[in-house]
Amino acid sequence: MIKRSLRLPAKYSVFLFGPRQVGKTHLIRQTTSPDLYIDLLLHENFLRYGQTPEILRKEVAAIGTKQPLVVIDEIQRCPELLNTVHSLMESDQAPRFILTGSSARKLKRKGANLLAGRAITMRLHPFTHEELGQSFSLEDSLRFGDLPKISLEKNPQDKARLLRSYVETYLKEEIQQEAITRHVLAFAHFLDLAAFENGHVIHFSNLSREVGVDAKTIRSYFQILEDTLVGFLLQPYVKSIRSKLVKHPKFYFFDRGVVSALQKTLFQGLVAGSPPYGDAFEHWVLLETRRILDYREREYGCAFFRTADGAEVDLILSSGEEVWAVEIKAGSQPRPSELAGLRSFRKDHKVDRSLCVCQTPRRYAEEGIQFLPWREFMQSL
Predict the structure, then answer these.
(1) Domain boundary among 104, 123, 142
(2) pLDDT at residue number 170
(3) pLDDT > 60? residue 201
(4) Which of 7, 21, 161, 306 sits 20 to 30 Å CA-CA off 364?
C-alpha cells in the first residue's frame, strides 16, 4: 500500500478536494473509521439526500455515539446538505465531518454554505515521487502521469487504456456538462486545443477564433477546468518594473497522463532531448512542486516571468520577501544560452536563489546560478 503524504486531522472537520481518482475515498477508508459513510455518486443516495437533506440529522442522531465521524463523498452533488451539516456542527457533541469534492464549481454556482471556516480545506493530488518511493519512474510519470490507478498498473498498454477511459468518461462527458448546453461542441473542441496549449502562454482571442466562440466564453471554459480541479492558470509575476511584461497566464493540466491522452500521444513515447520531452519534464516538475508545497503547507506563491521580447523564467516562487527564480531544463548539463531568462530577471529583481532544476547527477554553480538535480530541489522546498 502506498502511504500518502496528506494527513487528515484527527480533531477537525475537513473539506477534502481533489480531481476524480486521486484516491480521496481510499485515503479515508485506510486512515479513518467512519460511523456513517455517504457516497453521493450513488444515484439512490443522490436522490435521497437531494429530496430530504434533513434525513441526515436523524441518521446522525441514530448513531448513538459522542462526536461520530461522518463522511460525505462528492458533496458538490448535493450542496443542500451543507446547511444541515452546518447546523449539526453547532449542536452539542457535534459530529466531525469529512466532506470530499472534485468540483468547487457547483458549490460556488449554487451559493452553497461553506461552513464559515468550521472545516479545514485540504487537497489531495496524484502520487508524488516521494510517495511512490522505489517504484517511481520518471519516464512513466512523464508519459502516463501519476493518477494512482494508472501508476500502479504495470502494463503500459493497460495504462494507456485506463487513461483514455478517464479522458472520455470524465473529462469529455462529465466536465463538458458544466459548459453552457448550446456550446457543448465548442467546449469539446476547446478541450482538445487546451491540451496542446498546455504550458504555453494563453492568448484568449486566438483560441476564440479557433473554437468559434467569443473570448469571454473561452475564459469561462478555463474557469470550468480550474473549478473542476483538472487544471490551473499560472499567472505572470507581478512585481516587475518593466512595462512590457506579458500579461497573459499559462495553463497546465493537473496530470501529465491526461495531457498525453488528450493529445493522443500515449503510444508514441518520449525521446530524451526532444522538445516534447522538455515540455513534459517542465510540466511534471511544476506539478510536483505544487503538490509538495501543498502537502508541506509552505506558503509560496507560484508565477512565471516572460517579457514581450522572449526572456522567460519557468517558475517564480515567492514567500514574503524571499524570491526564488527557477528555470527547468530536462538535460543533465544545460547550456548557458538556455538561461538568458534567469539573467534577465536578476537584472531587475531581488532574487534570493537563482536555480536551474535539471537532471544533473550532482549540484554545481555557474555565473551565480545553482544547477540542482530535481530530487534535491524537491527536498529543499
Answers:
(1) 123
(2) 82
(3) yes
(4) 306
The set of cell numbers assigned to 343 is 539573467
- Burial call 277-292: b when 16+ CB within 10 Å, e when fewer: bbbbbbbbbbbbbbbb
- For 314-361, how does the pLDDT look when each residue is reduced to its tens digit (9 = 90+)? 999 999 889 999 999 999 999 888 999 999 899 888 999 999 999 999
Nine-digit cell string for 187: 467546449
281-313: pLDDT as tens digits: 999 999 999 999 999 999 999 999 988 777 899
Q: What gap in Å lies between CA 61 and CA 64, rounded to an integer?
A: 6
**Domain limit, last residue, from 65, 91, 123:** 123
